[in-house]
Specification:
This protein is 58% helix and 11% strand. It has 117 residues and is mainly α. Helix 2 crosses helix 6 and helix 5 crosses helix 6. The longest helix is centred in the last third of the chain and has 18 residues. The protein is globular, with a radius of gyration of 13 Å. The two termini are 23 Å apart.
Length: 117
C-alpha cells in the first residue's frame, strides 16, 4: 500500500535522528520499523490515549514528505487505531494513517526506551 506520509518538521527531525541511530539512509525503512515495533508493543492506550492524541502546532499543518510502501495489514491496523480513538476528523486514509504515524513518532520522541528495535 503506497501513500504519501504527511509529517511536520519536528517529526522529520525525529526520523533523521533515528536514521543516524540505526545507520539507515531510508526514511521509509525507519517508519516501517517503528510502526511494526509500536504495533507489536500492544500498548495502544499508552501511545494513542487521551494524553497523546492532542497535537501541537496545528493538527492539519502536516505536509506530504515522502512515499511509504507499507504492508497492507499494517496500514489497516493503523486505520483501525484511528477509529478506536477520538482524533480530529481527516478526509483521506492517507491523512488518517499519517496522523497515527505522527503519534507513534511523538511517542518515540517522548518515551524512547519503551519501543525497542
Amino acid at each position: 500500500m503506497k501513500f504519501n506520509l504527511r509529517l511536520k518538521e519536528p517529526h522529520i527531525d525525529v526520523v533523521e535522528n533515528l536514521k543516524g541511530k540505526h545507520l539507515s539512509s531510508s526514511n521509509e525503512d525507519i517508519i516501517k520499523m517503528y510502526v511494526k515495533a509500536a504495533l507489536n508493543l500492544h500498548k495502544n492506550d499508552l501511545i494513542f490515549g487521551k494524553e497523546r492524541e492532542k497535537c501541537s502546532g496545528g493538527c492539519f499543518g502536516s505536509e506530504p514528505q515522502f512515499e511509504v510502501d507499507m504492508d497492507e495489514t499494517d496500514f489497516n491496523k493503523l486505520k483501525k487505531i484511528y477509529e478506536d480513538y477520538d482524533f480530529d476528523k481527516y478526509e483521506t486514509d492517507e491523512e488518517v494513517v499519517s496522523k497515527i504515524i505522527r503519534c507513534i513518532i511523538n511517542f518515540i520522541d517522548d518515551e524512547p526506551k519503551l519501543i525497542s528495535i
